[in-house]
Amino acid sequence: MRTPICIKLGCELPIFAFSHCRDVVVEVTKAGGFGVLGASTFSPEQLETELCWIDEHVAGRPYGVDVIIPTRYDKQSEASTEHLEALIPDEHRAFMDKLLDDAGVPPLPADERERIHAAIVNGRGNMTPDGARRLLRVALNHPQVKLVVSALGSPPPDVVVELRERNVMVGAMCGKGEHAARHRAAGVQLIVAQGTEAGGHTGDIATMVLVPQVVEACGDEVAVLAAGGIAKGSQIAAALALGAQGVWCGSVWLGTRESELDPFEKEVLFETRTEDAVRRRARTGKPVRMIKSLLSEAWEQPGAPAYLPTPLQGILYNEAHARVVRAKRKDLYSFPVGQVVGMINEESSVRDVMYRLQLEYLDAIERLRQLSPAESED
Amino acid sequence: MRTPICIKLGCELPIFAFSHCRDVVVEVTKAGGFGVLGASTFSPEQLETELCWIDEHVAGRPYGVDVIIPTRYDKQSEASTEHLEALIPDEHRAFMDKLLDDAGVPPLPADERERIHAAIVNGRGNMTPDGARRLLRVALNHPQVKLVVSALGSPPPDVVVELRERNVMVGAMCGKGEHAARHRAAGVQLIVAQGTEAGGHTGDIATMVLVPQVVEACGDEVAVLAAGGIAKGSQIAAALALGAQGVWCGSVWLGTRESELDPFEKEVLFETRTEDAVRRRARTGKPVRMIKSLLSEAWEQPGAPAYLPTPLQGILYNEAHARVVRAKRKDLYSFPVGQVVGMINEESSVRDVMYRLQLEYLDAIERLRQLSPAESED
């Protein structure tokens, strides 16, 4: 399944792995795929540590980094977290607290609470124009970083110029055909067409419809990866049939022994059915596909407070989530995950997943070949 | 792309066309595909007329019929339409009337109103256990009808026995992996796995995820068709890669010159973007993917009355829809359609669509073949 994007980037397989976990990035990359580290939750110092570790373990292979690079300066995003916390209405805070208190979930110890807040400050700091550029500067000091993906909109012109000058490929996420044309005009070289079935922030359009539309909008110069609904080799074959040059997977790595989820979280993951990966606004204020839980559903009930705008809803949710994980409460636990979650039912290793994907891909290709035996002479 | 289901049913191509329009059924069937007439809106006498016409035009080729066969007797479904109309609250009626009156849409003339109501009575009569069996009896008098698809749940045991005895294949629609096992246990031989991107009543799960799950639940005995997101040959290739034996398409025929839509309706269809095929409850009380319009959105606004249960919402909506079509009001017009609507931009003929689908399919297969040149020796 080696496609032109593999040749351009120098990997064997067009299987791109998005992960916040360096172990997953390394194992996918070593197995011939292309690991992409989600960097926005790290401080510049932490990112430096992670990338050094990855460099040491991938034996010279290329890999990528995913960052959120805002195009415009957003005054609110520069506000301090303390200031933002003051903007969360008492009604919302009381609703979340009552929900967890009534369910018998203990509050966080003070040090844990501080750690969460530090993470929020980091994460938010990275989403300012300056913060994102600080992360980029770290990434560009690592010559094996051959791809930078902008997780939100087209990257700004100065970033595109710098990346292209340094021979780092510029990528961007896309949930609508018309966004593809905008990315292309901004100089993006790789577009990840992400269908509604994907985990995390997603749009409404399904991968089956979105990918051909993005491919058509991109022409030959821009490569397209399919994201959303990819956890089996037959789905990779389907994505390539739709015109994608590869796939971008996230959920499938969560169930591996290398993943960042702890055993309690993995148990929930393995038990979650496809129909329980729902799009809800509880986590960030914008629709995120995530595991359905009492916490995600409480905000949907009549009488619940209206969702807060980003980033306020996320600040409120993050602390509640940490309480739930600490208390190991399956009924309240949620995590961003795609509809493929119903296909992830036991722990595996990244290497095993990579091997399985290839075998299943070959099976699918062979099945198609047998359906059209004559056309090979065309 | 000839798959085992083609051999079983006696068609050339595994392209199944769902349509309420006999011309589409005939043209698809003549072009080597398999037309399936949506029968539930016809009276038994009308259905007899339609099927005789189809028989005369398909030159002995097989085709199918789609009916709604309730498993249980439902007292409300037997109630007269007049009785049901009385159950529609004044608030709801006033809301719909005000919306159209304010928009300057004239009320229906009395005869038009009567025709609409007769159609509702027909349609509803066909959805009772007896009504559905009356339609089936008509269909079974036409030996070229080789497939009967139940549009709602598994068909009841007596229907399955009768169809199988007469060598008519039994099909059913499915939106969740777990429904597939139920269908299989009920004796269903063909399952249409319909993803959320499809038009009409749909679930939440995307075709890319649903099809492999249904295929896995079905084993080798039951054939699976992919529905939702199929309007190009590359999407057929993707569906077959996922393990489907064929595709079931609806929206793509709406834009043909043979379709039942009038020129005004087709204009709206060609202008509708993928993101404007939204899932709303305005039409039937259950989520239907349909064209976004002022009429579909009005019911979503704060202060709008709550949706009525099926069939009341549909009775209310049908008359409003007829008013809008008669007034040719694009801003208020809606119709069930899938996300592929963004790919349907000009009038074509059924034959041209069938030809295009095959060419695009071969292109996709050839692209995959070139990516895996070596594996043919396996």
Number of strands of chain A: 11
Uncertain runs of chain A: none
CATH architecture of the largest domain in chain A: Alpha-Beta Barrel
Summarize the biggest pleated sheet of chain A.
8 strands, parallel, barrel
Helix fraction of chain A?
Answer: 40-55%
Strand adjacency order, main sheet of chain A = 1-2-3-4-5-6-8-9
Count of discrete alpha- or pi-helical segments spanning 4 or more residues of chain A? 17
Shape of chain A: globular
- Total of domains of chain A: 2
State Rg of chain A: 21 Å
String of helices and strands of chain A: HEHEHEHHHHHEHEHEEHEHEHHEEHHH
CATH topology of the largest domain in chain A: TIM Barrel
Global structural class of chain A: alpha/beta
Largest protein-protein interface: A-B, 51 and 51 residues
Give the topology, please.
The structure is a homodimer of 378-residue chains.
Chain A: H1 4-9, E1 15-19, H2 22-30, E2 34-38, H3 44-57, E3 63-67, H4 75-78, H5 81-85, H6 90-102, H7 110-125, H8 129-140, E4 145-150, H9 157-165, E5 169-174, H10 177-185, E6 190-194, E7 200-201, H11 207-218, E8 223-227, H12 233-241, E9 246-249, H13 251-254, H14 263-271, E10 277-280, E11 288-291, H15 294-298, H16 312-326, H17 350-371
Parallel strand pairs in A: 1-2, 1-9, 2-3, 3-4, 4-5, 5-6, 6-8, 8-9
Antiparallel strand pairs in A: 7-11, 10-11
